[in-house]
Amino acid sequence: MPIADIPFRLRIGITGHRTINDPETVSRQIRDFLHERIWELFDPPAGRKKSGTRLAFTLLSPLAEGADRLAAAEILKIADSEIEAVLPMAAGDYERDFATSESRAEFHDLLSRAGRTIVLKETASDNTLDEVRRKAYEAAGRYVVDHCDLLIAVWDGMPARGRGGTAEIVAYARGKKLPLIVVSSLDPYDITLEKGSGLNGQAYIRLGVFNSFAIAANVRDAYVDNMHRDLFANPDGERLDGAIRERIRSGLLPWYVRASSIAKRSQKNYLRAGLLVYSLSPLAVAAVALAILMPKWASPAFVVEFILLGIILLVIVSSDRRRTHQNWIEARFLAERIRSAIFLTAGGVQASCLVHIHALRPQLEAGAWTIQAFDEIMRRMGPIECCDQAGCDLGIAYVRRHWLQDQIHFHVSKAQRSQKAGHRLERAGWLVFMTAFFIAAWHLIELFLGHPEILAWLGKPLVFLAVVLPAIGATLGGIRGHREYSRLAKRSQYMQAVLSDMDSRLANITQAKELTALLQETEQLMLQDTQEWLMLMKFAKVEAI
């Protein structure tokens, strides 16, 4: 089951004049920018040579005459690109501002092709020039700027002729340091690029890494088959609609397999790197102690120390360059989002699209690619139809047993494993500390009272241990911090309690609307849990101690 790569989607805003003297030239300038010069706006540079990932666009536009429609026509020519209509008022009211029947027909044609429509004000005054309508146009322009990644302005460079005019919207975009493309509406129709804060080049590159991850088709298909059996080869799964199961199989499972495979491989490399660094550190200290206590062994001991420190440095640098830590947490975040979407789809609920929640779009973080990738996956899935009452009953049984209760069992087991591992390391740390404490006490006794000659042979070994044991204690503490056992255990205990409450509430659902609302609440809980894990593990990097 081949799957097409995910494009990097940019949300483009448009503002400009309604009357364009040479629409063909302006359209050509917009087209040339989209195909050739847009790469100049990425920060850091993200040329096509660094990633074969293609661009797709969503145009945020009020679909007014002139510049708005020229841009819409160019955007719709590009594969996987779409319009998002931002209407200042209801369409029936808004269209009265278009002078001819041809213009109104063009407006409705473009509106019918919009993937999403936002109406900012349902009603406005009949007077097309009054303050209410002007405020509505201004609000539409500001909404476009607030929700886009870059703005195209077809502008003559003159001050605004009215409230919410092109000049005001350009000034607003500049104030937000939004990347800005100004296409002059006057001959010779020059184009000027203002980089602003730049487009997210890291996110573009990171999505390219995800797309290019090598996984053999037979391995992927076998993984998908196994997951499909695990999910649906049970009485609850077999009663679900076959079309729903097939949509999940073809639309979600291949992407879950890719994200999960990256996460598992990266996690294994990350944990191995951490264990190696923390294990070699006390050995390097031991080599130094040996060199001091045994001068005749000093040369080889210092060579060993140098080699061990070199290996530690190599492991840390290699881990950073390969981004094993970043790959792990980002791919796991995406995998968990897809996993939630699997069960939401089975329950007849549409997964949330985070790109449209502007406050949740971390555009300055490379991890923004995971949000884009997930929303593109769901875009391809298409809308999820709400279940009827019989389907909802089946969905409730399936979601309870195979999502919530499985997650409860997972968190119970996770908390127990984390607690045991943390306690073992804590006990080992205390043992090392108390041993070092008694050695320090022995040295004090020796200093003030001397020691029997029969125990003289203990001198150097005890000094050696006095030097090495604190390093071993630091290593054990470093591993505990690196694995975050304590906080992960507490996090799982909290999730166990909350999910148990969700499961009890789901058992009492009787209507489809209640199911939708509770599953959406569950999705937000899972998203919050994943985000908290992401922030917790974000700073648990492999470091020298």
Written overview of the protein:
This protein folds into two domains: 8-206, Rossmann fold, CATH 3.40.50.450; 215-349 and 384-538, no CATH class. It has helices spanning 23-35, 67-75, 91-94, 101-112, 131-146, 166-175, 201-211, 217-232, 235-238, 242-251, 253-293, 298-322, 324-346, 368-381, 389-449, 459-483, 485-507, 512-538; strands at residues 8-16, 42-43, 55-61, 82-87, 114-119, 150-155, 180-184, 191-194, 199-200. By secondary structure, it is α/β, with parallel strands linked by helices. It contains 18 helices and nine strands. A hairpin with a 6-residue loop joins strand 7 (180-184) and strand 8. It is 63% helix and 9% strand. The strands form two sheets. Strands 5-4-3-1-6-7-8 form a seven-stranded mixed sheet, with helices on both faces. Strands 2-9 form a two-stranded parallel ribbon.
Class derived from helix and strand content: alpha/beta
What is the percent of helical residues? 55-70%
Please state the average pLDDT score: 83
The N- to C-terminal Cα distance equals: 47 Å
Q: Categorize the overall geometry.
A: globular
According to DSSP, the number of beta strands is 9
How much strand?
A: 5-15%
Largest sheet: 7 strands, mixed
The number of helices is 18
What gyration radius follows from the Cα positions, in whole Å? 31 Å
Strands side by side in the biggest sheet: 5-4-3-1-6-7-8
Please trace the helix and strand order, writing H or E for each element: EHEEHEHHEHEHEEEHHHHHHHHHHHH
Number of structurally distinct domains: 2
In the predicted model, the low-confidence regions spanning at least 5 consecutive residues are: 356-364
Oligomer: single chain
